[in-house]
Amino acid sequence: MARDIFHSNVRDALIKDGWVITHDPYELEMGSPDYEIDLGAEKIIAAQKGVEKIAVEVKSFVGKSAGYEFHQAVGQYRNYKSALDDIEPERVIFLAISEDIYESFFKLPFPQKRLNEDKINLLVFSITDKIIVQWIRQ
Questions:
Q1: Given strand 131-136, what is the order of strands in its sheet?
Q2: What is the pTM of this model?
Q3: Which domains does the chain have, with CATH numbers?
Q4: Could you list the pLDDT tens digit for every one of the 138 residues in the chain?
């Protein structure tokens, strides 16, 4: 599977935020089809709470149509979430997008409606600073 152009930016941002990368990629063996989510990570939250586990699908949105890329990303996210629910339900999936695309596209009414309806979690990152700007959990 080809890596997204911002893969290393998100990986670096997660590490800076205290996450340990456990999978690169996170392979979901479902028989057919098998899926690969870009990253799997863990972070110790507190001694009594244990470990939080996430999966992160990175999307660049650098094509001609943000709408078309959004359509693809939502479908991919839903498939991955469904597979994770069966295999590792405690792992929370996030769609990683740049701060620029979040501000210019994801705040529009229709993308907001779809994010809410499908309960899509976002990890918003800075391309240049390689940091996580915002976690948005639905």
A1: 20-23, 39-46, 50-58, 92-98, 122-126, 131-136
A2: 0.91
A3: 7-136 (3.40.1350.10)
A4: 567 899 999 999 999 999 999 999 998 877 766 788 999 999 876 655 678 899 999 999 988 899 999 999 999 999 999 999 999 999 999 999 999 999 999 999 999 999 999 999 999 999 999 999 999 999
